Structure formats: C-alpha cells, structure tokens
Amino acid sequence: MSLPFRLTAAATIVGTTILGAMACAKSDHATTDSTSTTTSTTTSTSTTTTSSSSPNTVTITAKEYAFDAPSQVPAGVTTIHLVNQGQQLHHVQILKFEQGKTLADFQAAMKAGGPFPAWAVMVGGPNAPAPHGGESNATLNLAPGQYAFACFVDIPDHMPHIMKGMVQPFTVTPATGAPAAEPTADVSVTLSDYNFALSKPLTAGSHTIRVENTADQPHEIELVQLDSGKTADDVLKWIADPKGPPPGRPLGGIAGLSKGTHGYFTADLVKGNYALLCFLPDMKDGKPHFMHGMKQEFTI
Question: Taking the chain, what is the end-to-end CA distance rounded to the nearest angstrom?
Fold first, then answer.
C-alpha cells in the first residue's frame, strides 16, 4: 500500500473523532436507543467461546484507554462483540501482521511515519457504537497468525487512543475440530471507489449484512441513525460547527477492510432515516472518502 501511514491513521482518527463527538453529545440528550447493531452480551470481562459447529464468540470491553480482550483466539469464523463501557467513543480495528511481523514492528512503522506497511492488513472489526454501554459486532473468518486490536479514536485531546496504550496484540491459533460456516447474509454491501452497493434495500427488522471491499484501497462502513428530518450533510455540517445536539447517532458497522477482505455485522433496524459513511482517506489525495461521495442515505 503506497498511502503514507499518517494519512491512513488520520482518516480513521477523523472518522472516529466525528462519530465520537456525535455520540458523546448525543448521550446528553438520550439514554435509550431502539435501534441496535449488537447482541445482548454485556459482560465486562473478555470471553472466548468455541464450538465445532458455530462461530467462535469473543467479547471485548472497551474503556479509557484499554481493551479487556483475549490474548488468543482460535482460527475460523469468529463473532466479535464490542461493548463500550467508556465515556468516550471506541472501536476495534483488527490488523493482521504478515511476513512474520508483530505489533512492535507496526508501532515502529507508525512512529517513523513512512508508508503504510503492506504486511499490515486491515481485516475489519466492530466499528464504533455509542459510548456508555453501546454495543456493536463483527463476524470475521480469521486465519492463524499475529494480530492486534487497536483503537484510533482521538477524543478528547486529538491524541489517538492507540498512542495511550489502547492496542493489544493477540494470536490466532490453529483451529481444532470442524470449521464453522460463515453466516448467511440476507443483504450484502460491496465497497468500491466511492460507493456502497447494496444487494437490496434494508428494511425494518433484524439483518445479517455481508460487507466486502473490492477496491484497491481500504474502505469501511459506519451506520448512522439520523434524527428526523436530518441528512448526512447535516451530520457533516454539524461536525464542522458542533453546536447544539448532533443530528445522528453512530450504530457500528465494519471497520477498515483491505482489498479482497470481507466481514459481517448484524443490525436491528426501525423505521427512520439512516446514513452509510466511509471516513478512510483516499490513496491519491488523502481526502476522506465521504468527500468523494462515499456517503449514502436510506429510509425505512
């Protein structure tokens, strides 16, 4: 990947900063939310559950500035539940280190500020839910190797949480027993430059959504529930001048995916207006992808 590392990190920071401001402000105006992109798991201790016929299950609790997460996960289809018990926004960007590299190598590359290393592959993860107990999820097919859970949010002082220690290495160990099948999705989303292509419209109710990136550069999907009468542009305008209550609420999705990778998330949707957004930077000009039109609204 030829994109300078600082731009890739900055884009993740931009996206999560935006959503963090929205979520933190929104928490002052609402204490419940009828729309969810999570399961009901709310444990404060990391867990890993394995089965020969169903996906592994991992629960990660986020707070300032640490993950309570396992150090080992069996290979195969794995559902990762993120529970944000912090007062600030957090997400889980999962990085896979190839060519024998480790988190220490990645941190050295980050410090040096050179090109994003080709051996650090973005494989998704639960994108940002709201703080104060918000949840999100992602199901990924993890191959054995060295990985890291990382949070690039820079709320409240513009310092990425990864720089405050919010990163944790983990090992995906070889699986034993029969592999689990990937989820059966009822809706698929293809990420490209610069578009979200849905296989069919989303409707009220529970959905399993498959997200795949076919572009040469990384993309993500963040689902935002818009307030009545508000638009994605209202969200972006509010970000530029955050006065009053925010016009939407972050609900999660799939964090950055490198080319050819995919993941799944579940969403329980109610009637209303929504937006899909990608905040990652363009490989050519460094601008967030929403500035290239990678923002899409839909109504249920």
Answer: 38
